[in-house]
Write a structure and sequence with these properties.
By secondary structure, the protein is of the alpha/beta class. The chain is built from ten helices and seven strands.
Length: 258
């Protein structure tokens, strides 16, 4: 929470404007487009990320389809996941959120800017209707990020099992699937520190309908999970090498000064 406090403190002079703009854009009477509402988040969130001393290293942005109507499936590490994706992507996207967040005063307004779909995880029939509605929206050209673990992982960068039902959206919409690997996205808000930290994101090559049309949702969930797991391992290895090089450079600088 220290980093969240830092974000608010550094941006205190912007907060009144952002609050007013958020309330204005999400007013039911106005009816602003999803593009305009998302553009507000895309502009505001970088201010928070910079103030929070978080660096984002991304790979594979070229794998995001030029045409709208795709699904991103990502591992889920916390609140910073969506912030980092909004920071990187100028294309509007939506997501699923648990029904309880619909009545959280400020959060519900932010989620409204993303045109989220609320899902009741305790009602199987209602959940299925939500999934079907998401598929219809994707067919119509909306983009979504879905976290198939079903909840945030509390085991750093290790994946929880993917829920096959989350992939029903893809089989119904027959759209491209972009696996997304998040590494260290839990650190900004879960570690009680304001030291500069880095979050890594890799967008993997799309899995087209022709590649997964004959797969069951169980098999598809395993396919996507394996690809994300492999990407996470590769990013962790690369990050470890970069950290080792950085430490070596610092040592060499100290030696030179002597």
């Amino acid at each position: 929470m220290r980093r969240i406090a830092l974000m608010f403190i550094i941006n205190f002079y912007r907060l009144p404007y952002y609050f007013w703009k958020l309330m204005w854009l999400t007013s039911k009477k106005k009816g602003f487009s999803k593009e305009k509402k998302y553009a507000f988040l895309h502009k505001a969130i970088p201010c928070a990320i910079r103030a929070g001393r978080v660096d984002i290293k991304s790979f594979g942005l070229e794998n995001i389809p030029k045409e709208n109507g795709f699904l991103m499936f990502s591992n889920h590490q916390g609140m910073f996941d969506a912030m980092s994706l909004i920071y990187l992507l100028d294309k509007p996207f939506s997501t699923l959120s648990k029904k309880e967040t619909e009545n959280v005063p400020l959060l519900s307004r932010v989620l409204s800017c993303m045109n989220v779909e609320y899902i009741d995880r305790d009602d199987v029939r209602a959940s299925l209707k939500t999934i079907q509605h998401v598929a219809e929206r994707v067919k119509a050209g909306d983009n979504f990020v879905i976290y198939p673990e079903g909840h945030r992982s509390k085991n750093s960068n290790k994946l929880a099992p993917f829920k096959p039902g989350a992939f029903k959206c893809a089989t119904l919409s027959k759209c491209p699937i972009i696996p997304v690997a998040l590494v260290d996205s839990y650190k900004p808000f879960d570690i009680p520190s304001i030291r500069r930290t880095t979050v890594y994101i890799r967008f993997l090559k799309p899995i087209e309908w022709e590649e997964y049309k004959d797969l069951r949702t169980t098999d598809l969930s395993i396919l996507v999970s394996n690809r994300i797991s492999e990407a996470i391992r590769n990013i962790e290895k690369k990050a470890a090498r970069e950290e080792s090089v950085g430490r070596l450079q610092k040592v060499l600088k100290k030696i030179k000064k002597r």
